[in-house]
Amino acid sequence: MDQVTYIKDMIRGSLMAAAAGDALGYAVEFIDKSTIDKLYGSDGIMAFELNGGKALISDDTQMSIQ
Q1: Cα separation of 41 and 45, whole Å?
Q2: Cα 25 to Cα 27: distance, rounded to the nearest angstrom
Q3: Can you tell me whether residue 54 is helix, strand or coil?
Q4: How many angstroms separate the first and last alpha carbons of the chain?
Q5: 12-31 as b/e: b if 16+ CB within 10 A
Q6: Distance (Å, rounded) from C-alpha 46 to C-alpha 66?
Q7: Bridge partners of 55?
Q8: The model's pTM
Q9: How far are the Cα atoms of 4, 6, 35, 55, 62 from residue 12, in angstroms, in the given order?
Q10: Is the four-CA dihedral 46, 52, 63, 16 of positive or negative sign?
Q11: 23-36 per-position pLDDT tens digit
Q12: Alpha-carbon distance 52 to 11, whole Å?
């Protein structure tokens, strides 16, 4: 693998990881901690909340991949 391909793969992986984190937190983005604790327990959200079989992402991720 050449260096350019390696760097592109690293960038792509970073964006995918950020999108996954955003999707995980999307359901609780504007909810206070006490409500999150009530809804998901003290460990917080541990799985993607799916909407039509898809994990949603916020506009933050959408803007960073443009």
Answers
A1: 8
A2: 6
A3: strand
A4: 26
A5: eeeeeeebeebbbbbbbeee
A6: 28
A7: 50
A8: 0.80
A9: 12, 10, 34, 18, 14
A10: positive
A11: 999 999 999 999 99
A12: 28
Is the Cβ–Cβ distance between 27 and 57 less than 8 Å?
no
Residue 57 backbone zone (phi > 0: left; psi -120 to 50: alpha; other: beta): beta
DSSP assignment, residue 47?
S
Spatial CA neighbour of 28 closest among 13, 50, 49: 49
The fraction of the chain above a pLDDT of 90, given in percent, is 88
Provide the token pair at 24. 């995980």
- Sign, CA dihedral 31-34-35-39, equals positive
